Amino acid sequence: MRGLSEQELPAPPRVRVSPQAFPRIDDVCAELLRLSKAGLPAVIENVDALPLEDARRLLHLFLHEPDIVQPIDPFAALLEAMIRRRKVSLWDLLAPAPPRAREDAEEFLFALPRERPACLECRCFPFCQGYGAWVGACETWRAILSGLSSAARALSAVRSPSGAV
How far apart are the C-alpha atoms of 68 and 74, rounded to whole Å? Predict the structure, then answer.
């Protein structure tokens, strides 16, 4: 019997973490660190509902804490897409599941150019595509996407022999 290669091993399940279930953002950070040390990837739920500074704190933890060795989504998925220059948006990662919510989202996107033309000119639009405006969290998602974009550029420059991004 042959052993399984690393690529054949099943990925560990992603643990859902809802910051609203914790009394303080530091407790959320501690939980994400604990999960990472245990080898478990995480998904932060309801990022849209976080105060801007709490979202920044979680992003900083993801980008700069050396003990975070497991993916924390949606940050990890967005950063990977940026580095690999893959098309992915917040809609792809966070889109609403109930049919009525999907219909509302489609109506919002149809009206976006007319009702929120500034969205189309935003530097975060390629990844946001209006999602931040739809959930009322533009500032939060702009901060997250800008931070991830800076990190992606820095990582790409390190990986690129010419330093070009």
Answer: 14
Q: Summarize pLDDT for 142-154 with one digit per residue, the tens.
A: 999 999 999 999 9
pLDDT tens per residue, range 36-47: 999 999 999 999
21 to each of 13, 31, 73, 152, how far by Cα in Å? Answer: 20, 11, 17, 30
What's the CA gap between 144 and 89, in Å, rounded?
Answer: 13
What tokens does 89 get? Answer: 């948006």
Total Cβ atoms within 10 A of residue 59: 23
pLDDT of amino acid 13: 82
